[in-house]
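Exercise: predict the fold of this chain.
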Amino acid sequence: MGKDTFDVLILIGRPASGKSEIIDFLKHTAPDVRRGRYHIAGLDILGVFPMLWAWFEEDRILNQQLGHPRLYTDEGCYFKHPAYWHLLIECLSLDYQKRQRDNPAYHDHTTALVEFLRGSEHGGYGEAFSHLADGLLQKAAIVYVNVSFAESLCKNRRRFNPQRPDSILEHGLSDEKMERLYREDDWAALAPAESGFVRVRDIFVPFAVFENEDNVTTDKLDLLAARLETVLDKLWNLRLG
C-alpha cells in the first residue's frame, strides 16, 4: 500500500487569515477522517508564533524585571535586526531536522505542519522559503490561505483578546504593525495561480491556494471541511504528478 499522507505541509498567509483555525480544525478531527479526507497523519505542529512570543516575553523580563537591555526587540516590539525574521525560519527548519534525526520513521505516522507568515518588508515568502532546508522542502507541499489585507485587518481586530495575548487563536497585532509589516505580501508575484509549483533553489514545491475572503474558517465548520478537502486533494494530486 502506498503512502497516503503528506510528509510536510507548509501553511502560510496573512495574520488572521484562518491558518490557526485550520490547524485547530485538523487537531480536533478524528485521525481516520483526517487521513482519509485530508491526507494528514498524526499532526506535529511547528509554528513561529510560540517562539516569537517567547522572545517578546524574554525581552520584557530582561528589561523591566532584570534591568538589562532587550535582546531581540526595541521598545515598540519591532525586531532590532532584520536577520531575526530569517532566524525564526531557520529555527523551524532546524526543529524539523532534529525530529527526523531522532526518529527515522517520523513520517511513517506524522505530518509536520509548518506554519508562518511573512510580509514583503522583510523579503516576503520568497526570502523565507530560502531559509528552509532542502530536506524539508523536498518533502513539502504549501497551502496559502488567501485573504485581502482589509479582511486580515478586520479579523485581527475581532479575534484579539487582551487577556490572552499569547493565545494561538486570540492573539493580535496593532493596526500600525499590521500596516507596516503585512500590508504588502509577495505571494501573488511568487505564485500567480490557484495551484502549481514554487521553485526554491532547484526544488519545485507544489502549492494550492485556500480562498478565505468569505471567512469559512470562523464558525462554518461544514464549509471549512469541504473547502479544505478540495484544496488538499488538489495539492495531493499535484504532489503525485
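Check your answer against the key: The first strand starts at residue 8 and ends at 13.
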